[in-house]
Amino acid sequence: MSDQTELCSHQFNGGKMNHIFKQNEKFLYVNEFTCEAAERCFKDMRAKVTLKVDGECAMLKRGQAEAPVDDNADSNAQLKKWIFYRRQDNYKGEEESIPVPEGPQPGSFQSHNYSFVPLGATLVTGKGKKKSFVGEDTYAAIDVGVTAGLIPDPNDDSAQEFITVEWVGQKHQLNMDFCPAHHGIVVHGTTPVKVPRTFEEVAEMAATCAIEGVVFEDGETGERFKLKFTSFQPSLFNLHKRKHKPTTGISTTIKPTIITKDGVIK
């Protein structure tokens, strides 16, 4: 494994997020905070609150571009590109993985040990009608995001060394947001959500707003806490999920901005 990446200020590193509230044996929330930091973040009206998207956690990391652009060796050596990494739990595969970058969110938690594995640009899965151009579609979506200004140009001096994203689409989870593509990208922390600040009011919101949940970010430490609407009962998201397929069913209430190879969906 390679050395850990330096964390940019208040940047999500893809590690394990603690819950705002404690859960009972049925994984439903009870009106008790998990820790003082979670309580402080929840009650702080200045805390950044964004949409938690139903998908797979992934990361874009700056790496050396392979294709030469001209005959200038020095210029080619400095050319960068985004490399897409899938987050894995307790990974034991043959591909070389990299650890979760240093930051407030731990890479290891209880029985979980997260790492990131690179996605090959030519990866294809399935056959016939089920064939999916995983690598080509995902890297094309990255290019669209850079062109649209939603993802920094990797060759810009101000670009972060890594950006965490949610991998979404018809081939990921249940595709609750109805992404029309097999593979799409949602940049983490880009869809703000207004959330009340009492347990009872959030429970009421979960019953009427079909989203997986939200993420609170502590403005001082950068630590993040999750509040899953699926851990309330009733949960409108869970009710929709029972009737949902990747291309049919009832969608979510609040939509993220999704980047696909064919364009940006808002």
Q: What is this entry, summarized?
A:
The protein contains 5 helices and 15 strands. The chain has helices at residues 36-43, 73-78, 134-147, 199-208, 236-242; strands spanning 18-19, 21-23, 29-33, 48-52, 56-64, 80-89, 98-99, 108-109, 112-118, 162-168, 184-187, 213-217, 224-228, 258-260, 263-265. Strands 5, 6, 7, 8, 9, 10 and 11 form a 7-stranded antiparallel β-sheet that branches. The protein has a 4-stranded mixed β-sheet with strand order 1-13-12-4.
Structure overview:
This protein has 266 residues and is of the alpha+beta class. The chain contains five helices and 15 strands. The protein has helices at 36-43, 73-78, 134-147, 199-208, 236-242, and strands at 18-19, 21-23, 29-33, 48-52, 56-64, 80-89, 98-99, 108-109, 112-118, 162-168, 184-187, 213-217, 224-228, 258-260, 263-265. Strands 5, 6, 7, 8, 9, 10 and 11 form a seven-stranded antiparallel β-sheet that branches. Strands 1-13-12-4 form a four-stranded mixed β-sheet. It is globular and about 55 Å long. The relative contact order is 0.22.
Give the proportion of residues in helices.
10-25%
Question: Low-confidence parts, pLDDT < 50 over ≥5 residues?
Answer: 1-9
Oligomer: single chain
Order of helices and strands: EEEHEEHEEEEHEEHEEHEE
Largest sheet: 7 strands, antiparallel
Mean pLDDT: 91
Per DSSP, the total helix count is: 5
Q: Class by helix and strand content?
A: alpha+beta
Overall form: globular
Distance between termini?
Answer: 37 Å
Number of strands: 15
Beta-strand portion reads 25-35%
**Rg estimate, integer Å:** 19 Å
